[in-house]
Amino acid sequence: xxxxxxxxxxxxxxxxxxxxxxxxxxxxxxxxxxxxYTLPALLTTNGGIPVRSGKEWKxxxxxxxxxxxxxxxxxxxxxxxxxxxxxxxxxxxGAVAGTAIAKQIRIYLQKGxxxxxxxxxxxxxxxxxxxxxxFAGLNFFGNQSVSPDEHILISEKYREFLKFKNKNTxxxxxxxxxxxxxxxxxxxxxxLATAYYGDVELDDSTGWKTGVRSVLSKALQLRxxxxxxxxxxxxxxxxxxxxxxxDKDIAADKVIVIGHSRLGKAAxxxxxxxxxFAAVISNNSxxxxxxxxxxxYGQTLQNITKSFPHWYISKYTTYAANVNALPxxxxxxxxxxxxxxxxxxxxxxDRWSDPYGEFLAAQSTAPVYQLFHLKGLGTGxxxxxxxxxxxxxxxxxxxxxxxILLFDWLQYIRFADELVK
Length: 421
Ligand code: GCU
Known about the structure:
- The protein is α/β, with parallel strands linked by helices.
- It has helices spanning 5-19, 54-74, 95-98, 156-164, 177-180, 182-187, 212-215, 217-220, 229-244, 262-273, 301-307, 314-317, 330-335, 355-363, 366-371, 406-419, and strands at 85-94, 100-108, 117-125, 132-139, 191-196, 250-260, 279-283, 342-347, 389-390, 393-398.
- Strands 1-2-3-5-4-6-7-8-10-9 form a 10-stranded mixed beta sheet, sandwiched between helices.
- Strand 2 (100-108) and strand 3 (117-125) form a beta hairpin.
- Residues 1-21 have low confidence and may be disordered.
- Bound molecules: alpha-D-glucopyranuronic acid.
- Alpha-D-glucopyranuronic acid binds next to helix 11.
């Protein structure tokens, strides 16, 4: 059989239009080309009724908005499994130069000791007089990346991820130390709870096959496609909170959920679904996180659903060509945190995450906070760099790159000192 080269080329081009290999438009970084848009109404119910009180928000509108996010973006948010149990693997009472206790706890999600499980690393100040407030956030490279401390068990799942991706990269202890600022947290009287995000689902379009969405499908009564990788990572944060609620060292009503970048997106979704989190912090979470989707600036919905199709449910991809048809925008996600304290942060060089879009979304939550007689950001003006602004809702744009650094943590500590502690 002879097939012409032309035919093959045609077949490839037709196929690529189905598989999504077509070229994405280059990102817009020109504010004058952002386009015009109308944000979906926050304070009008699906049936067109205005929402006038905190009670009405909680009883009606909040539920509707949460459901819209489930149906169109992140999928379902199951509770824990009935067979969850915890096992302390190690306790080191001389951590962080003798100022902290480091506990390593395995959170089993099924009966017995079979996986998947969540390996939690928990630091608590040693000289505490009462249960401490804690920051809870997922890490990118396994618990051993958070500190060079030799006692920290090397993440099994992170090793699995490297193997799966055929990467020969060595596992380096403390490679993200500067992103966690454990010493400062302890000094200020806070605990830190962290686990590898890949413990529940490896970050790959096929990750669901070995992660909780598939293994726990029966236990959770959900098919894998009814939720998303982002949903699974957020769910992991809730399971960490389940453990923290059992730990006498922790003030369970003072757990602040935090995340950077894609893990900032996960932290927001966890904060929206799980109101047990006392406060929520999004650091450079960008598109599909704190940034308004309707603004054509930096990463777009089209880009994120093409590059990371597993992060959201497939319905979300259907809005790629027409973002204005999406019944929600990210200011509504942020408003789901109300009346709890919320912090949104950007970085000046992180144009991909659309800092102004993150600011606008945070600012647009004000009417919901007002229903609770609380002041949100309190300004429509983007602040100068390195200046934390706001009230119950806060914002800063740090000078520099897409990252989470000491400057950011110091703002979060002050925010927690004033609004959570
Ligand atoms: C990519 C992605 C972003 C994400 C970021 C990260 O840049 O496009 O949406 O926030 O990775 O998680 O580091």
